[in-house]
Amino acid sequence: MNRTRRLVVDPIRCDAHGICAELLPELIQLDDWGYPMVSEQPVPHHLEAHARRAVAACPTLALLATEVEVARTAGGRAR
Amino acid sequence: MLLGAANPKVLWYLTRGFGLVSLVLLSLTVALGVAQLARYARPGLPRFVISGLHRNASLVAVGLLAVHILTAVADPFAPIALVDAVVPFIGRYRPFWLGLGALAFDLLVTLIVTSLIRQYIGHRGWRAVHWLAYGCWPVALVHGLGTGSDARIGWVQLLYLVCTALVVAALAWRLTTRWARAPGSYRLTAAASAAVLLLVVAVWAEQGPLRAGWARRAGTPPVSTIPAVGATGSHP
Q1: How many other β-carbons are positioned within 10 Å of the β-carbon of residue B21?
Q2: Which of A9, A22, A30, A55 to mutate to test the interface with B (most CBs of B within 10 A)?
Q3: Would you call A59 and B51 a contact, using CB atoms and an 8 Å cutoff?
Q4: Torsion angle defined by CA atoms of residues B29, B31, B37 and B41, in that order, rounded to the nearest 10 degrees
Q5: Domain for residue B228, yes or no?
Q6: Does the pLDDT value for residue B69 go beyond 90?
Q7: What pLDDT score does A68 carry?
Q8: Is residue B91 part of a domain?
Q9: What chain A residue is nearest to B44 in terms of C-alpha separation?
């Protein structure tokens, strides 16, 4: 595992539907106005499927999973 | 086809039944879509469930419509080609009213395909296309009334009324909650056009499909003998 993902919210697109926080409460909490506060931690392996679901479910496509490289090793394969 | 060989009427009944159930699913899809926009949620019914139901209801509707179309094409009584179900207004069997069905199907497929590739076309493009949903449902309803053989059956009329009430309620909900910040003139225009459309469809239905002799006036070819309720063909 040399690549991982981190979730970010596009604050302009986000319309505070809150579906992401329902699907991924481990990493996403809502603020008092219903907008998501996303953990800056990389998405742990066991939550990747849930994270993908949350990204796909966002009604305004505001939740993004950006690929970040963590200690890349030579010849490493993504997933 | 096998079913058709056993009893040729089976296909015709399947066409009509699947058409009606599709209308129910489409109405639910519209209502769930509005519920999602209105941020409806209750304990035990979170938003991702509403969103999933909206999506899945539309997918089920397409599946039902596939059966609706295939059985109509396979049915030997009505001369409907597969292309008539996709290209509007070219068929021989009730061309206008069948064409509305083809149009509604095309719109629905457009809505679903653009939703499936939403990440690639972007939210703005997707949303612009998704406005077509408000055209798809009325077109499907008028197709059902105009080409359906069942518009004069009491419980079918009740079904149409319930579906219409559901969608009208959804529209009212949308105009009062989700569009509350939009200029009043937009909302008034939307509400007025919906009311006019509803009135026109109601008056037309009363003058047309709900009266005897509609099958002939709707453009049914005279040689086909359709074993519909109250319709007697003139087979040579």
Answers
A1: 17
A2: A22
A3: yes
A4: -100
A5: no
A6: yes
A7: 76
A8: yes
A9: A22
Closest to B141 measured CA to CA, from B123, B121, B163: B163
Domain ranges across chain A? 3-69
Chain A residues whose CB is inside 8 A of the B48 CB are: 19, 22-23, 57
Q: What does the pLDDT look like over B92-108, one tens digit per residue?
A: 888 899 999 999 999 99
CATH architecture of the domain covering A3-69: 2-Layer Sandwich (3.30)
Give the integer Cα–Cα distance in Å for A45 and A76.
Answer: 16
Quote the pLDDT of residue A76.
Answer: 44
Shortest alpha-carbon distance between residue A36 and chain B (Å): 14
Q: Which of A13, A18, A22 sits opposite B123 (nearest CB)?
A: A13
Residue at B226 is within a domain: no
CB contact under 8 A, A22 and B123: no
Domain carrying residue B69:
2-217
Instruction: Give the integer Cα–Cα distance in Å for B111 and B130.
Output: 6
Q: How many domains does chain B have?
A: 1
Residue B156: phi, psi to the nearest 5? -70, -40
Residues of B in contact with A60 (CB under 8 A): 123
Q: What six digits make up the tokens of B69? A: 């179309």
DSSP B83: G
Chain A: closest CA distance from residue B74 (Å) = 38
What is the tens place of the pLDDT at every residue in B41-63? 999 999 999 999 999 999 999 99
In whole angstroms, what is the distance from residue B212 CA to residue B32 CA?
A: 36
The torsion angle over the Cα atoms of residues B91, B92, B96 and B102, rounded to 10 degrees, is -30
| B127 within some domain | yes
C-alpha distances in angstroms, B138 versus A5, A10, B5, B119? 44, 35, 35, 28
Per DSSP, what are the bridge partners of residue A5? A67
Please state, as a whole number, how many other Cβ atoms lie within 10 Å of the Cβ of residue B164.
Answer: 18
